[in-house]
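Subject: for your reference before the review

Hello V.,

The reviewers asked for a structural picture of the protein, and I figured it would be easier to keep everything in one thread rather than splitting it across files. Below is the amino acid sequence we used in the manuscript, unchanged from the supplementary table.
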Amino acid sequence: MKLKKLGATILAVSLALGGVAVASPIQKTYAASDFSYSQEAKDALEYINKIRADAGLGSVTLNPFLTKAAENHAAYILANGLTHDEIAGKKGFTGERPKDRVLAVGGSTSLAQGVGEVASAGFSSLESAIDSMLNTSYHREPYVSQYTSEIGVALNENRFVLLATFATTTSVISTYPYDGQNNVPTTFIGNTELPNPLSQFGISKSGYVISFYPPHVLDTKKIDATIKDSKGNNVPFFSEWDNGFWFFYTKEPMKNSETYTVSVNYKPLYEPEYEGKTLNKTWSFTTAAGFSNSGSNSGTTPSPNETNIPPSDTTSAIGVGEKYSKTNVGVRINSKSVELSPKAKVVNGSTFIPLRGVFEKLNSTVAWNQKAQQITITRGSVTVKLTVNSKTAYINGQKKTLSVAPFVDKATNSTYVPLRFASEAIGAQVSWDQSEYMADIVAN
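And here is what came back from the structure prediction:
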């Protein structure tokens, strides 16, 4: 892959879910007891948890398998250049994708399936590498998501890698800048992140990125929000939704030493206790008097060559700028975009998902009987049985008739099942956006 020649770069991979790993890792496996954390990992954890504590978020912990996978990938980056996809045969190869590298060191399948990765190169310290990601939109997500639970971090010379996994439930709201934060930068330069969040709005720079993430499923098309300055004047802004986060970009850079108040009215979807109710979150923050790089409220200022550095042109974030279609249907589970391999798709007007990937994320187990061509999906006390090319299904032994039958895609040799029936049969709720080719699955 072609990378820009930059003094510092950042790279992100959102949730890497879906198909079975195809790489052949060479790294030996480890037991948790085999591993001790480097001082750099401990320092990074302390800094990240300080940021999270200031933002009212729970602390995260180091996971030995995530950390070892991060160390391996940092070594690969040092030898081969910044990338999130490793190539077999190259020095330091331990797995093609983040999930493969977690599996390669002995991490469990459940740990590997939900892993996300961000990486940087060229920054002079852990703090500046982390701050560079906080100062963007999509790269910020694992640091300030209330769902982040375990991380693995590594620093090899100036190559920094973070892996993260996510919990399934929380009642905490994430805002960033957080309520009461001071020394907030005034400006976001769009090309410091790819895909460039500002290109869709036709501008090159905006005010510092504001993010809002409630623990609910919301309308992803529109949001009722206001941003006001200290005099009560409305500040115009653009907004977008990504992976559970709403991002707000003021149309002009913010003013120095100014206090801004953000207020969001929102209506949780698919939750009976909030039926017909509108909730509100209001918070304020104050911009810096001069240059600031954000992060914790330490007020530290990086050297000029560490500011506004564009990331690699291979940076990707699921759900941003991605064009979904009949052969590449987008899937979100509890507001989180998931990557499926092979892709979900529409066949003769019905949406199908690959057997593996979605149901594991829904805390279900999937069994395949090759001889009978039968699929068994179990979630809690519910067992669903489907048969390839048959419209007859069973839910806890009760016969059901499907409108469409599961099938095997010959091109990928993957089994596909009807999205709505299979998901709703195990207690999930499904909504479908035809214009966007996007399926939303909500499960408790």
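For the response letter, the relevant points are probably these. Helices lie at 39-54, 64-80, 98-104, 109-113, 126-134, 141-144, 355-361, 419-425. Residues 64-80 form the longest helix (17 residues).

Happy to draft the paragraph if you're swamped.

O.
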